[in-house]
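HOLO CASE FILE
Compound: nickel (II) ion
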Amino acid sequence: MVLNDTSVQPDYDRKAELIAFDETKSDVKGLVDSGVTEVPRIFRLPSPENLTSQQPQPTLPTIDLEGMNADPIRRKEVIRQVKDALESRGFFQIVNHGIPVNVLEGMLKGVRDFHEQDTEVKKQWYPRDLSGKTRFAYLSNFDLYTALVTNWRDTMYCFMAPNSPQPHELPPPCREILLDYSNQVMKLGVCLFELMSEALGLDPNHLLDMGCADGLAVLGHYYPSCPQPELTIGTPNHTDNDFITILLQDHIGGLKIFYQNQWTDVPPILGALVVNAGDYLQLITNDKFVSSQHKVVANKAGPRVSVASFFTTGLIQTSKVYEPIAELLSKDNPAKYRGITIKEYADYYREKGLDGTSALLHFTI
Ligand code: OGA
Ligand code: NI
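Model generated. Tokens follow.
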């Protein structure tokens, strides 16, 4: 669904209600704790979500990374699977990726514990500027005033690379685990970029040499239990503004990707991680790998916690220009996008908000 249809703007003073929500410096969790039994108007979709999963659905590939580094034949097979998944739907799950289950569980718990602190304690992290100077920030809706529908979600942001934070810059409930988890995610990301480079027929270091793993932002989402989940949305339809995202989700479910003309569930698998291509990967591969639309529906069974690790330098000013990789272009496959800096793209993405359209369209030649 496209949310930027002006005909669906409800006739009430939305701006005033947004300001009122913003001024509480509280969050969606705060609303739920205060006992709301109906979804307030600022959170309401123009038309309700269909929460019944369509059957049958195409299944999302799960790729087993076991033995990949020791056995060249296994590695070749993994590269083939990664290539198929990124060319067709831009999403896959991985198991035996090397990050132990206790670290995954610890990370989910750290995010949950952060969000479940007293509002007064959380307020000291809200609002902050997100320019990359502040290592840790927390706010309910980053596009509160531009989004047409407020999301049933609170999010903490942490910028882990290129400059890793000092422990004291991070909140105590997730301080150590954030450092540990993001170290391990960075290593895994490096492995994935090597596989992807090979899947593109390039030298294994190609994507790393371009700087695809130079930046890492870790987002800890908290989707409070919702009394009327069909009336609102956890995260609206969007694509990610990064090279890849490595997503850790808990057991609740609700993530859906748009594939073969239908919304398809990404089922939680204990110990697995979800990997997806973001807009920058689609841009530099000239559409060979796709950055797919996805969303998260609200739920009654929650809270749901997820941790999205974005490989991007975000709003940090760098001079590096990204454009379609020359080796992938030919007379029949000319560049579809102009060169961009990550900051230029990230600024545009933020200003546009998650309105159901792709920011990539703005940068086509
Ligand atoms: C995101 C995202 C999915 C989730 O952070 O971009 O799509 O399950 N998150 O929270
Ligand atoms: Ni996303």
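CASE NOTES: Residues 238, 240, 294 surround nickel (II) ion (ligand 2) (CB under 6 Å). The first strand starts at residue 62 and ends at 64.
CLOSED: yes
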